[in-house]
Amino acid sequence: SCFRMLAAADDPELLQKLERRGWMETWPETSPIDQRTEAAAAELAVDSLQQALEKLSSSNAELKQRFGGDTVAARPAVRVREAETMVVVSLLKSMRELALLSSHEYLFEALRDS
Description:
Layout: H1 2-8, H2 12-21, H3 35-67, H4 76-103, H5 105-113
C-alpha cells in the first residue's frame, strides 16, 4: 500500500482521483491501481528491500569481525541478524516476482483477475 501510494504520488492528478474514488478508505489494504503504477510500486519495493539487505549484509560482516568464531548461541545478536536477513530475502524474492508479473500486461491482467 505504501509503495502503491508512493508510485501514484508521481502523478498528483491520479492521487486525487484515487482519493475521490475512496481508494484510501480501506488503508492499509488497497487494491491495484493500474499496470504502470503496480510495476513502479514493485520496483520501489525491490529497491528498498535491496538497500535493507545491503545494510544487513554489511552489519553481518561487522558482527563476524567483532565476534569471530563465537557460536551463534553465545551471540544472540547474530541469530537475530540471520532471522532479519531471511525475512528481507523472502520479501525481496516476492517483490521481484511481483515486479515481473506487473511488468507484463498479460501476466498482470491474469493476476488482477485471480
